[in-house]
Amino acid sequence: MLPIIGVTPSLDHESQRYMLSPEYTAGVRAAGGVPVMLPYADDAAIERLLGVLNGILLSGGVDVDPVHFQEEPLPQLGRVCPDRDRAELRLTRKVLEAGLPILGICRGAQLLNVAAGGSLCQDIPTQVRSSLKHSQTAPRWHPTHAVNLEAGGITRRLLGVPSIRVNSFHHQAVGRPAPGFAVTARAGDGVIEAIEGPGFTVGIQWHPECMWEKDPIFLGLFRGLVEAASP
Ligand code: MN
Question: What pLDDT sits at residue 51?
Answer without folding.
Answer: 95
